[in-house]
Design a protein that fits this description.
Elements: H1 17-31, E1 32-45, E2 48-59, E3 65-77, E4 80-88, H2 90-98
Antiparallel strand pairs: 1-2, 2-3, 3-4
Length: about 100
């Protein structure tokens, strides 16, 4: 079952399955306009992988920028992403979606 995260950040929170992934990206793109997504490092160890980089988006409702480094931890099984966990600067995200 999908659960929402913060009300101001409706794309946050845990998701599962293909429908959860679709809902995540659909909701994310309702609220943010992607500007830059840069991968600086990829580390792989068997089924585990970590992607490091930074991103810049614009909050559609306010026009405010969101700039944050990120790390993503993935588990890939039989060529399919079985787990994806994104880590980002949640303070910067909160400021971008809530402050005037």
């Amino acid at each position: 079952m999908d659960r929402a995260g913060l009300p101001q950040v409706p794309w946050s929170g845990p998701r599962s399955g293909r429908d959860g992934v679709r809902a995540f990206f659909a909701t994310l793109h309702e609220y943010l306009q992607p500007e830059e997504f840069t991968v600086t490092h990829i580390v792989v160890d068997g089924e585990q992988g970590v992607i490091l980089g930074h991103l810049r988006d614009t909050v559609k409702a306010s026009g405010k920028p969101l700039t944050t480094p990120f790390a993503a931890h993935l588990t890939v099984v039989d060529g399919q992403v079985a787990r994806y966990h994104l880590f980002e600067d949640t303070h910067a995200l909160h400021r971008a979606v809530t402050e005037s």
